[in-house]
Amino acid sequence: MIGNMNQAVLLIIVANVLVSMKGFNDYAFLNKYKFQVGSILSGEKVRMLTSGFLHVDWIHLGFNMYALYLFGGIVAGMLSTPYFLIIYFGSLLTGSLYSLMFHKKEPYYSAVGASGAVSGIIYSSILLYPDMSLYLLFIPIPIPGYIFGIGYLLYSIYGMKKQVGNIGHAAHLGGLMGGFGLTLLLFPSLFFVNKLMVVLLAIPILLLLIFGDKLKKI
């Protein structure tokens, strides 16, 4: 199956694995390139990109790369490799921007992970192929793609509220907003072809934009 994987998806997975492995064994490297609010506000904007290639451990890395493997080929195949890259890196950056906005008063807040980019790819693939079904590890029955996407969203909201681990949960949410918006911008006919799915996916995004600040107060 790897032989049939889109080359851009494969290269991004390899880059994530190599950079994350470096971070596992070199804390100074991890500390230099992770997302950290104070450092970014002081001018180290590159962290908003580099943090997306670092992970806290093999489980964190594996989950994100497995999700990218499942959904990345759909986006690259149905749009194109350049559009896939635009959505991937655009979602990574919108994830970082949302994290920065959400944690702007916490200068020592830090996080790592490709979650923002992967969230954007997940939302993009659901928009493009709303009828997809997935066979996930340890689950013997097919699961609709949009169910996986909603579950990923709920997990992200819970993680952001509880600030679980060193994982960029807020980036999940910013990333899916980016993936949603960029996909519609690049493929506007989806407004008419998959109108119901566009509306369904837009609802939680609108709720997050309106009530996101209250997550810290719950």
TrEMBL record:
<feature type="transmembrane region" description="Helical">
    <location>
        <begin position="135"/>
        <end position="155"/>
    </location>
</feature>
<dbReference type="InterPro" id="IPR022764">
    <property type="entry name" value="Peptidase_S54_rhomboid_dom"/>
</dbReference>
<feature type="transmembrane region" description="Helical">
    <location>
        <begin position="167"/>
        <end position="187"/>
    </location>
</feature>
<dbReference type="GO" id="GO:0004252">
    <property type="term" value="F:serine-type endopeptidase activity"/>
</dbReference>
<dbReference type="InterPro" id="IPR035952">
    <property type="entry name" value="Rhomboid-like_sf"/>
</dbReference>
<feature type="transmembrane region" description="Helical">
    <location>
        <begin position="6"/>
        <end position="24"/>
    </location>
</feature>
<feature type="transmembrane region" description="Helical">
    <location>
        <begin position="58"/>
        <end position="77"/>
    </location>
</feature>
<dbReference type="GO" id="GO:0006508">
    <property type="term" value="P:proteolysis"/>
</dbReference>
<dbReference type="GO" id="GO:0016020">
    <property type="term" value="C:membrane"/>
</dbReference>
<protein>
    <submittedName>
        <fullName>Rhomboid family intramembrane serine protease</fullName>
    </submittedName>
</protein>
<dbReference type="InterPro" id="IPR050925">
    <property type="entry name" value="Rhomboid_protease_S54"/>
</dbReference>
<keyword id="KW-0472">Membrane</keyword>
<feature type="transmembrane region" description="Helical">
    <location>
        <begin position="193"/>
        <end position="212"/>
    </location>
</feature>
<keyword id="KW-1133">Transmembrane helix</keyword>
<comment type="similarity">
    <text>Belongs to the peptidase S54 family.</text>
</comment>
<keyword id="KW-0645">Protease</keyword>
<feature type="domain" description="Peptidase S54 rhomboid">
    <location>
        <begin position="43"/>
        <end position="188"/>
    </location>
</feature>
<dbReference type="Pfam" id="PF01694">
    <property type="entry name" value="Rhomboid"/>
</dbReference>
<keyword id="KW-0812">Transmembrane</keyword>
<keyword id="KW-0378">Hydrolase</keyword>
<feature type="transmembrane region" description="Helical">
    <location>
        <begin position="108"/>
        <end position="129"/>
    </location>
</feature>
